[in-house]
Amino acid sequence: MKLTTQTDYALRTLMYLATRSTRANVADVATLYGISINHVAKVVNLLARGGYIRSTRGIGGGIELAQHPSEIRLGEVIEKIEGDLHLLSCVGEDRSCAIDAFCKLKGVLAEAERVQRAYLDTITLADVAPSRRQLDRVD
Q: Is the pTM of this model over 0.85?
């Protein structure tokens, strides 16, 4: 599986917010990682719709986690941002090719997907978030 840049930015945004005890802003995240404010704003919108962060507009506004980092499972976030995670389209469909009825590869790939997702669901944001001190040292 190869994740999209959007998922990469979403995970990095969550990691950043996990180190903060107060609200941050999109520009802070974009500056730290050297990425476009527009890209961060797009993933913030997706993360807010997914219930992972709260976004408050106006003076004193900003972004913050909506859940404790230990409650945010990476597998769930990745699936929510990525959508279809199938290694091949046939894994998620029935009768998608001529050999579907007896194809052993489809079962192997389905099991690989299941194992990968099960593993990612054991990992929380708290497990992968850096410390505030580590992020503060990044130039």
A: yes
